[in-house]
Amino acid sequence: MKDVMGIVNLMEHNDFLKEISFHRPAAAIPFGGRYRMVDFILSNMVNSGIRNVSLVVQQKYRALMDHLGRGKDWDLDRKRDGLFFLPPVHLSSSATSKWDFRHFHSHLDFIDYSRQRYVLLAGYNMLCNIDFKEAFLFHKKMNADITIIYKEAEQLQEGLTQCHVLETSQDGRITDIEITQGYTKGAKISMEMCIMEKALLMDLIGRCHSRGECNLVRDGFIRNLNRLRIYGYHHQGYLAKIDCVRSYYRHSMDLLKPSISQELFFAKGLIYTKVKDGPPTKYTESSKVQNSLIANGCVIEGQVENSIIFRSVKVGKGAVVKNSVIMQRGTIEEDTLLEHVIADKRILITKGKQLKGDGQYPLVIQRRSII
What we know:
Elements: E1 4-9, E2 30-31, E3 35-36, H1 38-47, E4 52-56, H2 62-68, E5 82-86, H3 102-105, H4 108-113, E6 118-122, E7 126-127, H5 132-141, E8 146-152, E9 163-168, E10 174-180, E11 188-197, H6 198-210, H7 216-221, E12 230-234, E13 240-241, H8 245-254, H9 258-266, E14 282-283, E15 288-290, E16 293-294, E17 299-300, E18 303-305, E19 308-309, E20 314-315, E21 320-322, E22 325-326, E23 331-332, E24 337-339, E25 341-343, E26 348-349, E27 354-356, E28 363-365
Parallel strand pairs: 1-4, 1-6, 4-5, 8-12, 14-17, 15-18, 16-19, 17-20, 18-21, 19-22, 20-23, 21-24, 22-25, 23-26, 24-27, 25-28
Antiparallel strand pairs: 2-3, 6-11, 7-13, 8-11, 9-10, 9-11
């Protein structure tokens, strides 16, 4: 797929994931012990052979730039092509759509000058392990103008927002796209990933901009269903759609199931992240760990059960951490209890405290909090 350029759309609503994204863009939110959410789409593109990847950023993206750097850990530190940041466009407060064409219009020159013929456009909060080469072969086989990658919903899930539900004919051609707040069993949910020729994307952007239209899905796809050959490609692997605190917590807990973590991190290729040299985790005689993911650099003296512990976290003697997500450099002092908690980076829980959330509504502790 050297003839395909990747564009990752990092635009988001301001209240996305609330407390966890106060100090960072949602794409830079830690996930799975040592990764960031953006690592998954970048790794999928690189594993598929894409060597030109650009990120459309919005605001608070210093943490993202610090994490990605020049793209060396993803093999994107190159003389030709590589990793690019497309800076934000100043839009009015009414421009709230994630797929607003105006986010892309000012970068038409960059898209045009890129030497690839095709473009893969994707979001960042659909976490999966997918081989885009298979979708690209399907795109060419069907002689499609646009191919949208979708996932069939196996069961009803709560909390999803702004889902794009597809209807397809027997040959896979999309006949209708509905924008809905949720979905029902058996629905085909767009994964916000699509393949098309670069010239077509530029034409859609130009057409819509000249008419004052601005939404990629509504104005670019839905209004052209009859004019363009738009097909759906079915992704059959695991998919985690992170769109709220509850879904972040639920899919984090899914990683404790070996079958899911194996598929998400290894099935179609490795998921890469920023390399940080650190010592292995130290477990003392008083520690007890059950069914948990624990990154390197931690010191575990207490009990950890059904939890995800990020790098350099200290769990003191007599402390109990259950069903929780503790991000980098957190300190849990002696004789504390954390249950159903999401703790952001560098928090301090002092001795003897008891903090409990709920499986459906986890308690979120903001970055650098002292309790």
